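FORM 7B: Structural annotation worksheet

SECTION A. Query
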Amino acid sequence: MSDDDDYDAADSGAADCTPIEAGSVKMGKFLMIKGRPCKVVDVSKAKVGKHGAAKCHFVGVDIFTQKKLEAICPASAQLAEPIVDRTEYQLMDISDDDYVTMMDKDNNMREDLKMPEDDALCKKIREALDGGEDVLLTVLKAVGSEMIIDTKQGAK
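SECTION B. Predicted structure
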């Protein structure tokens, strides 16, 4: 193959993804780039040339690590679009080892997520909990990974 080796085909075994043709990817959509779920921030398409198919160039930001990733592939290639789910939970407690106890809208409890690595977000969550406020946590889930990405004050 040529320089197109770094794109991820839809049959890469990612069960939490749906296939999408590279030529139909738009900015703001989610796309698997180098095995990571990314939000597409830039798309450019090169026209069909003398020696082959049209090419697509994608720049995406990893939704969990915020790292910028790039991919180039033919416009007809089948890529993987991750299924991204946002869920809000009410914060109940934070354990000594930084595991978060949360409750969803159906009153189901979870204790399997750790505090986020973002120090500013951790501080905001702890201050809100210590202040006795109702705290809602936004959890992002994609391709088998989950992470707390935001917090806001709950309704009283």
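SECTION C. Observations
Residues 7-14 have pLDDT under 50 and may be disordered. The two ends are 59 Å apart (CA to CA).

SECTION D. Sign-off
Analyst initials: ____
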